Amino acid sequence: MSDGQKNCLTLVMALIIFAVFGAALFIILQKRNEEKVRAALGEDIFTFCNPPTGGNANIGNFPLTQGPFKSVVIGVEQDSLHNWHEALPDDVKAENRAELALVLCVGEMQTQPVENCPYYRSDGSLIFTVQRTQPYAPVTVINAATGRRIADVFVLGGPPKACEDQRYDQQGSATIYEGSQPDANAFLRAVWEYIYRDTSRR
Question: What distance in Å separates the CA atoms of residue 109 and residue 45, rounded to the nearest whole number?
Fold first, then answer.
């Protein structure tokens, strides 16, 4: 093995070690942050999302206090903070139970059909279909003080690509065009009207 190859191998090994160390440090910091949030907000808050409680959604269940509304983001039936919790602006991250107003329960990713595109022969018989689907994450907004459900929100991901005017595929096949999964920015757009709701307009 030449000196150049040895140096390259050493560099690759160093990068791998650095990546592993960085990932481990991130997990440790994330765990410590979650323990801090649990201690500040209380373990029972996590039961609100296990599964989401509060009956039927009703905007009348919204807190009577003034916003912005301090919130926490929890994964449905995960008993842990959802990754999107860190996306919350600092002014709406709840620091303690007394100021907590909203619990945002994020469910597992799902997909919804957008369109079915059938392709036919000249005689009108069906050859194959293409289904366009869009991922989304359901979010339940709960009043932290009363435990009552305020709203059910759908955080939409990116749309799938459009069906072609002409396409050639296998007889009887069903191809799926799936859009991109929603990210933290899509989540914030979907819940913005709740965490910054103007209650003076009641």
Answer: 22
